[in-house]
Amino acid sequence: MMDIPYGCQYIDASDIAAVVEALRSEWLTTGPKVPEFEEAFADFTGAKHAVVVSNGTAALHAAMHAIDIGPGDEVIVSPMTFAATANCVVYQGGKPVFVDVDSDTLLIDPDRIEEKITPSTKAIIAVDYAGQPCNYDKIRAIARKHNLSYVADSCHALGAAYKGHRVGALADMTVFSFHPVKHITTGEGGMITTDNPILAERMRVFRSHGIATDHRQREKQGSWYYEMVELGYNYRITDFQCALGISQLNKLPKWLARRQEIARVYDEAFAGFPYVMPLSVSKDVLHAYHLYVVRIMDKEPSKKRESVFKHLREKGIGANVHYLPVHLHPFYKKRFNTSAGLCPVAEQAYEQILSLPIFPKLESCQQEYVIKTIKDIWS
Ligand SMILES: *Cc1c(COP(=O)(O)O)cnc(C)c1O
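^ thats the input. predicted complex w/ pyridoxal-5'-phosphate below
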């Protein structure tokens, strides 16, 4: 019996050695591996600054804090995402305003953003869903015109590129996650990249209680004195996690190539197969394929998405659904009075989508089994 998840980490002996070495060092939490990981990550993405935190959700929260989102503020958010993308606005007392997605890509539809902008709108959080970069040019132009911050949730898109430029330096701030199903992992971890030194510094202060100087700086200055300048959190990450992150980042190019190869095999298998329709990919992008998402097109009950999902699970294939649109979660319905009908394109897609297994360790024979099991449903 096969047992194939939809996503899975890749940990090798060099990763383990890197963590062990860090554990044997003098530093467990914030030590030399933190700036080393940040610099390597900034280099990879092409951003000027990178700020590492304890998880992707903390990274989103830090980004909202850095641009002073607060009560009364509205932030435009895509509904086709993990709830954390919108939750970070709520943490700060703001209101997420959902803008429907494009039906071919399930990326936020730039042509629908402006109709939702009000005098209270402060920012746009656009999600590079599944690993495909959004239309950065269009969203940036809208943000500039209305004086909004553009925050990219690129938790799916590490290594992706838009018009030849890696995500990470294309928005005002870009957020990444190092959860085990993402492209690289630190167990739990997150990063924000930005070219803006003021935003970067605010997020560094925010991740450590709002305290202005870190303990290493104090030590250097020979002083015990510190001040808390604003309300922060403990969103720090450990040194041994950063050691893992550095080791993982070295392997990212190879893993991206493998994800793209897996996607190509799925693309070919489903080309001309009318019941399984992969999402479309823009010519302007290099897709990072965190997810491989298809729409199940059959209307017959036994062959609709839910039945296909159950069948695949029975066959040991960990297909998944990403996502229930955020505005349909009970919390959002209660708190913000959202309901079905608000984002019809996302809602209709939600009934049809299925994420198929894709991760660097997926073997070709496993992928062949996934493809055959799916196609057999219609044979
Ligand atoms: C994973 C993910 C997050 C949250 O990251 P965590 O590290 O799990 O907190 C946020 N947004 C998106 C789109 C994600 O996929």
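Residues 239-270 form the longest helix (32 residues).
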